[in-house]
User: Fold this.
Amino acid sequence: MTSPPLRFGLVGTGYWARIAHAPVLASTEGIELAAVWGRNPRAAAELAAGYHATPHEDLAAFLDAVDGVAFAVPPDVQTPIATRAARAGKHLLLEKPIALSEADADELAEAAEQNRVASVVFFTLRFQPQMRAWLADVTAGGGWRGGVAAWFGSSLLESSPFNTPWRREKGALWDLGPHVVSLLWAVLGPVTSVTADAGPEDVAHLVLHHQGGPSSVVTVTQSAGEAARGFEAYIWGASGQSDAPTPPDDPAVPLRIALTELAQNARSGRTRHSCDVRFGREVGRVLAAAQRQLDERAAR
Ligand SMILES: NC(=O)c1ccc[n+]([C@@H]2O[C@H](COP(=O)([O-])OP(=O)(O)OC[C@H]3O[C@@H](n4cnc5c(N)ncnc54)[C@H](OP(=O)(O)O)[C@@H]3O)[C@@H](O)[C@H]2O)c1
Assistant:
């Protein structure tokens, strides 16, 4: 006998909710897009109508109607709602970064832990089949001594649908940083320290030390412009270099994998996942430490 689909609610009605979360929630096996909440009731009604979901204005009623919640809102909006959802026993598909402060991330992670809800943070690179195959291949070997990763994005161009207020304020460190740190963490080991410096606009440079000795360097920006857009990552060691695959733009495949794994965990009562809220908190700690250094340098 097959179990009924898990009812998911979507928080957010913006571009990312419309192009990624809503269509993938509605088309992933074992999941139903049951409810939509947004601060703009008309946008919530319109988005919900396209998927025969129920729009909600009242957050409590929204949470009552679902088993899990997926988020497509800015991080400072996501964190308090996700904490409330976890306290109500709802499973969480979180966006990166999970919070903008360590205290908020701690509160969210503790709420998820205490209420034994399953969680997955959508670190996109970690759910792409090609990237997973590469990770499985290189981590089977070991002996890597270092890594280099650069992501030059263009979300801060005036014309980009991703040119949103929180990105303009927090820059690529908090937007692309989570993806890159989560990838280097998976391949070279837990990050034990970070040294950060800033370039022009939102350019952030990080030097990471990983448990056991490897080190890596990162450059991220969302101000690169169209011509310079690109992603590059490789690791190196005694056996040579290994290039990470270039991530495809389409978020549907990795998001479906993230949701499927979340639903499997929710059904089986497992809360641990390699990209769960606790890991999201660890990645956030690296970013917060980097931000403190950037702020100190800027104040000098
Ligand atoms: N994993 C990935 O590859 C990936 C890619 C893209 C985005 N994301 C993540 O998705 C999240 C949202 O992305 P985005 O910044 O590009 O936003 P977005 O898609 O433009 O959507 C923002 C949504 O949040 C709502 N919102 C903004 N401020 C709010 C507030 N104070 N209270 C309630 N709702 C509020 C907006 O409502 P209005 O429409 O009323 O303004 C809109 O529905 C971010 O965490 C981002 O990191 C992840």
In short: The pocket of NAP is lined by residues 12-17, 38-40, 43, 72-75, 77, 95-96, 122, 124, 162, 164, 166-167, 175, 251 (CB under 6 Å). The chain has ten helices and twelve strands. The first strand starts at residue 6 and ends at 11.
